[in-house]
Amino acid sequence: MNENILDKQEQSNSSRMIKKGIAAGFPIMVGYLPIALTYGVLAKQSGMTLTELTLMSVMVFAGASQFMGANMIALGAGAAEIIIATFVLNFRHFVMSLSFMNRLRGMELKWKAPLSLGLTDETFAVSALHTEEANKDKGALFYTALILTAYLSWVIGSFLGGVLGDIIPEKLSQSMGIALYAMFIGLLVPSVKKEFKLGLIALVAMLINALCIQLGMSTGWAIVAGTIIGGMSGIYLLKEEVK
Amino acid sequence: MILFIIVGMCIVTMIPRLLPAFIVDKLQFKDWVNRWLNAIPFAALGALIFPGILSVRPDQPHIGLIGGLVAIGLAYIGLNVILVVAGAIATVFLFTL
């Protein structure tokens, strides 16, 4: 009897965390769908089959590098070239994953390892701003639901793009290019309102990134440099914080 | 050939994501390293927003900038992220009409 009640409590706790995770992942879905559709259309035009372009979304799950990959395939670039460029572009996820996994220290590896595979710029940005769930009971379910929401919308969106072709009018799809940037801003601003120092950290990262690009660095390495060096300003700026 | 490229892209994307899950358990970080890692999300957001946002319309960088300013304004008054995204899309759309 008693056990039964506990069981139920546990169940409702789990389903609450899953619902919260889906809700937190919803803005990512809105941002991903138009981009995934565009990727699907573009990949199809670059000569990939529907299976190939969907498989790339399933296995790679990294927007910018998939656009680049499809583009390079269309241009007839070699496999080694494409794979190395992908590594450079996606290396920033190492830094993000290190930050996120450091937050999830208490969690078992069987949860942490799959979660790490679902890290993208967007899932990281949203997860990293929900730090309190990391220490809560069933917190892993929150992050899993969040990442799966993003992942499924990416994969399904790519597939639909490949099937339907150019369905969104060009002017609208071009306007949707701002969606993910707006999401990043929407995530950053509330934190900066609470703690101005966090805005300074972001500002340092922006300037370093812009400087690196001016110096001729590739986008991938410039973002890595901006994130690492910008984050260093936090060593000083976050000093008084009791954490 | 394309399949080989996809598998290669998958592996080089997986390894950097997966590695930290295994190494954080083996390492104890000093305080300053933790502060650094806790600042990473905000630094990453900054680096992801700028200067990338200027290339929303590569020929007209001011359109991305204006869309970004609208997003800042909407987020500042406390709107939900979805509405911030919708407002920014609408702004850019109006500018391209």
TrEMBL record, chain A:
This protein's name = Branched-chain amino acid transporter AzlC
Q: Where is the signal peptide?
A: none
BP GO terms, sorted: L-valine transmembrane transport
UniProt entry tagged with the keyword Membrane: yes
Q: A Pfam family in this protein?
A: AzlC
Taxonomic source organism:
Virgibacillus halodenitrificans
Q: Which GO terms describe its cellular component?
A: plasma membrane
Q: Where are the transmembrane segments?
A: 22-42, 73-95, 140-160, 172-189, 196-216, 222-238
Q: Which domain of life is it from?
A: Bacteria
